[in-house]
Structure formats: structure tokens, C-alpha cells
Prior knowledge:
Radius of gyration: 29 Å
Distance between the termini: 9 Å
Mean pLDDT: 92
Amino acid sequence: MVQPAARDTQMEARAARVSEIEALGYKPFGKRFDFTHTIPDILRAYTGKTGEELTPEGQPPAVRVKIAGRIQTVRRMGKAGFMHIQQNGGRMQLYVKKDVVPERDYALFGLLDLGDIIGAEGYLFITRTGELSVHVESLEFLSKTLLAMPEKFHGLEDVETRYRQRYLDLISNPEVRDVFVTRAKVISSIRRQLEERNFIEVETPMMQAVYGGAAARPFVTHHNTLDIDLYLRIAPELYLKRLIVGGLERVYEINRNFRNEGISTRHNPEFTMVEFYQAYTDYRGLMDFTEEMLKTVAIDSTGSAVVRFGEVDLDFGNIRRMTMREAVLEHWDGEGQPTADQVRDPEWLRTATGKATPGEALAHLFEVHAEKKLIQPTIIYEFPVEVSPLANSNPDDPTMVDRFEIIVAGMEIGNAYTELNNPIEQRKRFDGQLDMRERGDDEAHQMDEDYLRAMAYGMPPTGGEGLGIDRIVMLMANRQSIRDVILFPLLRPEGEIGMAAKLRHLSGA
């Protein structure tokens, strides 16, 4: 028995029109329609043309078109009417006149609802109000919408609904489409720049027996046939470096990673990165490449190296470099401004923070005092060895490693270093990570025996880097939340909405 809550009178009214549309000879769901132009194509090519150019007096119309799209507005006025349809990010007006279109097409015009998808054939002209429009000569029905669009397409404002029903968000808010066009441009720019430098795109496992490559908690799954637990990857790093050992000397992967962590405006448990590794370079070589790459990404995706983000203009053509110690000194905002000697003194660092090691203490001070204040694009380099178990030691200071992060608008968007390629030292580093796990750090790295074996076959000097694509898109698209740049961000499960019951009721089941 259908529950009363499953009934939706507006949905029922729209479903009833399906039969009326079928009675006119149209298919209410599904028919091929070969359009000749997209709406954006028409707007680009013919906006600014005069009425005389489009419909010269005494001659046939100059531009005939077949277009398709979703109805945004309908105005019926006796024996004529107007519609606006939306397609591929563009919006165009249609003029429908009773004595021009076939009788059944005009009858169809009377049955159309906002949100229905139609095709139209006709010619371009300019209305009395100066709007480029299509003078319709025939209509075709392509798909019926059973649910009402947001009121007059004024926009979908509820944030939860926008993320949960991204399809409706894209229909209702045209600027949302622009965000994901920008995202595509960012990824295309990164891929093109890497391939121009002879990097090879590869794919590595997303389910791993031993997780590694980052400090994070994994998602755990189970393989029934092998009867083993597996982890969704937190990073592809160790597999990509195996390929460096194997002789693929420039590799990259645009990858999905999964980290079982909190959700915030800057964190989503499933996210996208690009990681790339280059043999025979180091972290300073990657600094130079990264500065050029980010500048080009900004130009390719926004048209300028200077990008507006909130109230700030971010200049990707002028990326500053400073060490972690220099950042702590410059941005210290607590009591007792430390000296350059103090931020190098292990005892002072441990006393000032209560951390177990001086490296952990320095990283903590950086996070507390400096990171959020780095608004303009900045490269922070020279990291403590304790927080960088896969990076090569600095030859002048063994307590530090040759590593850098890119910080923009107070958030990390990239991480890179000269890769540790000494298997004996790597084993010691893994032991140090195991000690950290025993002290309660469940984000410390696991021991990866096969990775150690690969290193023992010899890894060339290598530089490796990971860039967070979601965060880069946030900057380029001027969005303050990572959920705005992920098409389907993770959300809490929705309560029962009864859609299946409503559709079952309409089917008569």
C-alpha cells in the first residue's frame, strides 16, 4: 500500500501531462535530436548582429539553427509566446507563434513546464526589445521533468541541498558550472605542462596491502577471496618511486586519495592530487618548475597570473621563498620573540612546546605562528627530519631535510622534496615512524618491506612532488570551501526521502 507521504500532487500533475504529450505524437522520454549549434556558439557568433543582418528584408533568414535545452521561463500570450532555454552554460530566447509552427507543436507549447527539455528549429532574429532570439518553426519534445525547478530559477540557495543534489545546483546556479569548467582547465594545464616535459602518465593501485606515502589514517576494506585487509591509498608515492627504480624516470599520476580524517572547508576524505617524480633532479629543481607551473595554471584557468581570492589578489607570478625557521621568526605572535639561535636550539624548542623531539617542536611552532599568515604564494623549505621520513637529509644540517611546501591563503597546496634513496637510512626512518606509532601517533608510516627491497636495487637521485588539485581549484575559482569545487562531496546520509515510493505510485504498482 502506498503511504500518504509518498504522494506528491505537483508530481502527479506533471506525470499526467506525459499522457497528453504522448497523445500529440511525441515521445516524452528519449529521442535523438541532432542540433546544429550550441547556445554558447550562437551567442559568441551572433551577439551584436543587427536585425537586418539576420533577417534581410525581402530575403530568406540568414542563419537557420536547430538547438536544444532545458526550459527556464515560459510566457504565453494568446497566439504567441516566449521561452528561454538553457544549454551548455548559455541561455537563449525562443519565440513561438501559432500561425508559424504546426498545430500540434503549438499544442505542445501549451503543455510545457519549467525544466522540460525540448528541441527547436528556426532562424535567428532580433526582437523589438533588442534580444537575439530564435523564431521557432518547429518544436520537438525531448524529456519531461516530474519535479519542479527552484522558484523561477532564482537560484538554489540551501547549501546542504546544493551539495547533495549537485545536478539541481548546476541547473539553477550558472556560476557553479563555471567552477567546474575552471577545474577542468586546471587539470588540463597541469597535464599539458608535465607531458611537455616528457613525463609519462601512469596508474598505481588504489587498494594497497601496506599504506604509505603520507602521514594520515587510512580507510580499511577487506578482500574476501584473499581474506586480507586492504587500505584505500592515502598517497601513490611509494608506487611511483618504485617506477623510478624501474627506469621510468619521469612519471606522474592524477589520482584519487582517501584519508579517514575530519571534514572541513579545506578537507574532504576523498580528494584529488597530482604527484610527479623526476630522476636526476632535487627539491630546488622542483621549486623552479613549481613556480612556473603554478603561474601557467593561473593564466590558463583565469587569464591572469594574479588571481582574486576573497578580498586578496594572489600573485602567482611572484612566489616568495623562505625557510621554516625564517617563517617562525617573521610571523611569531606570542610572548617572548625567539632569536635565530633559539629556533635552532633543541632544548629551547622542546621546552617551548612540550614536544618529544626538536623537529616536531619546530613544525608545531610553524603551524601555530606562521602557516595561517602566509597569504601570498610562498615556498617554505628546510623541514625537520622527524616530520619528513621519506625525504633526503640536508647535507649541511642533518636535522633537516631537503623539502618544501607551497602555502597560499594560509593553506598548503603542495609538498615536495629530494627523495631519500638510501635504503639503509630509509629503514632507520621507518623504525622512527614505528616508535611514533607506539607513542600513539596513528598517522605515522608503516614499514613497507617491498619498497625497501626496490630501493636496494638502486634509486637514482630524484625529486618528487604532490599538488592538491581541489585546493588549487579553490584558489583559481575563488571558492572558500573545498565542497564547492568537488562535484559530489562526502555528506552525512540523507534521511528517507520517499522518491522510490513516489515513482512507484505514479507507475500504478
